[in-house]
Amino acid sequence: MIDTIAMSMTTLPTIDTSSDRLLEHVRDPELAPIVEAVLQGRRIDADQGMTLFTTADIWTVCSLANLVRRRLNGDVVWYNVNRHLNYSNICALSCKFCSFYRKREQDGAYEYSLDDIRAEATKAIEAGATEMHIVGGLHPWLPFEYYVDMLRAIRETAPRVHIKAFTAVEVVHLARIAKRGRDGAEGIRWVIRELMEAGLGSLPGGGAEVFDDRVHAETHRGKITGDRWLDVHRIAHEEGLNTNATMLYGHVETFADRIRHMQLLRQEQDRTLLEWARRHGAQVQTAVDHEGQEHEAVILTHPDTAESRLQPLPSTCDTGYYQTLIPLPFIPDDSELEHLPGPMGLENLRTMCVARIMLDNFPHVKAFWIMQTLEMAQFMLQNGADDIDGTVVWYDITKVDGAGTHQEVTQRDLQRAAREAGFHPVERDTLYRPVQRDGREWSVVDDNCD
Ligand code: SF4
C-alpha cells in the first residue's frame, strides 16, 4: 500500500473501516470480496462493477458508495452559485436523444447576440454568481470569432466570473470552422489556447454520452466518438484546464457499456494524475486494469485520522485533471427516443453508487439536481454524491417532467437539501475552492492560483 494523494480542504470525520459492520450486513455473498477490496482501499475491476449493477443487495452498494464518498469529502456537500447560458440551440447534428436542438428555420430556434451575452454576464454579477456555464449546439454558420468575442465580452463585463464553457464536440466544431482541421490534435490545442486567452477557465464535460461504438452509431452518429472526446479533454488537461466528465445513461446502452465508460475515464485520470504525482514526487499505488494487468495508479484515499487537514488535490494552478463525474439520466421527452422509458429512481441511485465506487481517482461525483430532481439528489448525497451543482437559473438542454427552462433554486434551497441529508453545505468555486460570501460579494478562500 503506497500512496495517499488526498483531497478536500475540510476536516474529515473518522471512518469506521472495520469490515465487521459492513460485512455482517452483506446479503449477497458475491459482494463480500468487493466490500473487502473497498474497505482496504483497493480498486475494483469490471466484473465487480457489473456485480454492483446486478446484485439485489442494493443497500450494501449504497453503503459502500457512502463510505468512499465520506473518505474523500467527509460530511461536506459542495454547491456553487452559477448561471447557465445556452447561447444557441441551432445545431448541425440531430442526436436521437436530444430534445434541445433546432434547425435554423424551425420554431424556437435562437442564437444570442453579443449584447445578449453581455446582458447575461451582467445578470450573473447581479446574482453573485461565481461561474457561467456555457454550452450550445453546433451552429453551422457562426464564425470562430463569435466564440472568442463571447468569452471576451463576458470577461470584460464580469471579470471575476469563471467561464466554464464548451463540450468536447463544440471544441472540435470550433477547430473545423476555424479551419484548423476537424480531428487533428494540433487544431484542438490551438482552439483551446485561443479560448483560454479569451477567458476560458474550464470545460464542463458534457457530450461524453457513453463511450461505445454501437451506442454512437445508434444514437449520435455524426458526433465525435468517445476516443475523440477523451483526446479533447487530454489536451485540455495538458494545457492546464480542469474538466469534468458526464455519462448519459438509460437509453440503448448496457450496464457493461457504463462500466467500460467509467474504466476509460479512470484510465485517463490515472494518466493525468500520475504525471502530476511524478512531478511532485508523490508515491503511487499499483492497481489492476480492466484487462487484469497491473499498473501504477493514483487512488484517492483518506488517511483515517480525524484531525488531519488534507492537502488539496493536485494544484488547480498548473495541472488539469478531471474534477467530477456527472451521471446524467436520459430523459426521453421530445427526443427521437421518446419511446424508451428512461431510467427510474432506483437505477439512478445505483448508477451514482457504482460510479463513486469505480472512479476511485475522481475527487467528486455530482448529483445534478436539474436532471435528477432536488429530492432525488438528496438521496444521492447519502449514496456517493458530494456535489449538488448550483443555483442554475436557466437550463435549456433538458427538462424533467414538463418543467420549464426557468429552473432556479436559491442557495438556501441547496443548503437545506444538504443539511436535511445530514451534511454540511459548503459553497465552492468552479475549481472546488471554498467561497466566502456576503450577499452578492464573494471571495475564494486560499486563492493561490490567480
Ligand atoms: S446533443 Fe449536442 S450535438 Fe447532438 S443534436 Fe443536441 S445540441 Fe446538437
Features:
single chain; 450 residues; alpha/beta; TIM Barrel; 7-stranded parallel β-sheet; globular; disordered N terminus; binds iron/sulfur cluster
Description:
The protein has 450 residues and is of the alpha/beta class. It has a single domain (19-440), classed as Aldolase class I (TIM Barrel), CATH 3.20.20. The chain has 15 helices and 16 strands. It has helices spanning 19-24, 32-39, 46-54, 58-73, 114-126, 144-157, 168-177, 185-198, 213-219, 226-238, 255-279, 345-358, 369-372, 374-381, 411-420; strands spanning 76-80, 82-85, 131-134, 162-165, 200-203, 242-249, 285-288, 294-297, 322-329, 364-365, 387-390, 392-394, 406-408, 424-427, 435-438, 441-444. The protein has a seven-stranded parallel sheet with strand order 2-3-4-5-6-9-10. Helix 6 links the parallel strand 3 (131-134) and strand 4. Helix 8 (185-198) crosses helix 10. The protein is globular, with a radius of gyration of 21 Å. Residues 1-18 and 304-312 have low confidence and may be disordered. The protein binds iron/sulfur cluster. Iron/sulfur cluster binds at residues 91, 93-95, 98, 100-101, 137-138, 169, 220, 223.
List the helices and strands and how they pair.
Elements lengths: L18 H6 L7 H8 L6 H9 L3 H16 L2 E5 L1 E4 L28 H13 L4 E4 L9 H14 L4 E4 L2 H10 L7 H14 L1 E4 L9 H7 L6 H13 L3 E8 L5 H25 L5 E4 L5 E4 L24 E8 L15 H14 L5 E2 L3 H4 L1 H8 L5 E4 L1 E3 L11 E3 L2 H10 L3 E4 L7 E4 L2 E4 L6
Parallel strand pairs: 1-11, 1-14, 2-3, 3-4, 4-5, 5-6, 6-9, 9-10
Antiparallel strand pairs: 7-8, 12-13, 15-16
Bound molecules: iron/sulfur cluster (SF4).
